[in-house]
Fold this protein.
Amino acid sequence: MIDGKNLLEQLGRNIKAERVRCGYTQESFAEKLGVTREYLSRIERGQENMSILKILNLAVNLDTDISNLLRF
């Protein structure tokens, strides 16, 4: 069974993989989202507990289905 910490870390890895697939740097993707690179880095390291709406926004901006980000 996956715990909260591992879930956030896996979500972060999935977001990073999709970002890289799209060819974004952390800086360019953070700018697209209107957040700091540091905040995006915390997301990708699993240190931010985001709402489902924020995860959906990430999926839309990565041109992917939300299920690709929520693979565990």
User: Anything to note?
Assistant: The chain has five helices and no strands. The domain at 4-67 is CATH 1.10.260.40 (434 Repressor (Amino-terminal Domain)). The mean pLDDT is 97. The chain has one domain: 4-67.
